[in-house]
Predict the structure.
Amino acid sequence: EYGKQWYQRRVRGKMTDSSCDEDLEMQRDELLALQSIYDDREFKIKGEKQGIFNANIEHDMDTIQIIMTNDSNIPNSLKHLCLRTQDSVIYNIRYLPPLTLKFEYPSNYPSESHPRISLNCVWMTDEMLQKINDQLLDIWNETRDVILFSWTSFLRDESWEFLGLTNCFKCPNFVSTAIIDTLCVFDFEKKLFEFSRMLHKCNVCFEECIGSQCMQFLPCDHVFCKICMKGYFEVLINGGDVNQLLCPNDKCTSIALPTQVKELVELELFEKYERFLLQRTLDQMSDVVRCPRKFCLNSVLKDTDSNMAQCNSCSFIFCILCEKTWHGEHTPCEIKSGKFLELYKAFQSSSDAEREALYKKYGKAQVINVVAEIESAEYLKNNSKPCPNCGAAVQLGIGCNKIVCSVCNNYMCYLCGKSLSRSDPYSHFRPGGPCENKLYEGTVENIGWADELDDDSDDDFIIFV
């Protein structure tokens, strides 16, 4: 308001001069007055009779929503700022590209005619621009006086309400998909500019720093000084934790942008960070594998028609399934004995499709044999005891706990697994023996045999597995 009053005193105070140069002098005074009110980003003069005014339109919205069906027109570096719903993508902005007014003074302005003008705004329709143009002319007709300040004030302070705009820009109904990129980039850069001019408190060291010495994570907007973030990034990158360049605030999941990392760390460390990022991306690609040679570990594009791949760095040709030297398409991968149990567990928990994949990798016969072997070993472990003399698996059948190994003919106790005396094997189960009164413990009951303790017969029933 003070600027407006000063402008009127400066320009309109000379209207009583009736000289032929009155219009020219008032034009010059008007330009000087506008230069003193606006900075050179808003108001620029071209010669003595032309100029440009960039009106940063004021509105009372916290954010303006750009609503789209997908994010294909959002710059890749800003896609993480999108909000996604079931049927739309929303990108919130605060600042819009300016409405540009170009003007040129006629020789008889302001005594008889108004400045010649043209309007341009990347996000406004032709109908909106024409409506504003008509309003500017109406303002001139009401005053027929030096008019640029009234025009610029209207464009900046009143045009939003004049057009009836809201905080919702629907695409493509309101804005074209072709300009979404421009709107997003302008808003992002404007926010950076405004951020750089303000004081902020670092959430790590709690020192206040000007924005140009701070870094802000998006979309959480948490702020930290660059000194703290430089040390933070260096520790994580040197440790290989490039997936963890997250905002240091507790439980925050915002990720540092590569441009932010590059600004703070040395070139050599940033190149290391880029290599980690590239490898992470390649690891997520289904058609890319890593060379299994430990001295190489180069990323390799696999053959789409087979399980073979050739490293373009060390020339190693290998099977992508077992990571061994290529063994041919029709020869199944070798299964190491140490991997039998792992394969068995995978087979037991697999779906039909996953089992087919195992058959394709190792061969159906080989997989079935491994499963049968593991199941046999598991059965023997749970249902047999090893002979203490030869190690053969012996299973208890019908009878007592004194059994005979059919491989080496050794007498043994099935309960404790110890060898028994051949001359008196039942002494082991008599009073005072290691398994006193346990001859039939855990065996089939009510067999109907009597005086077993005095029987030296070797006709005990056993099953050898």
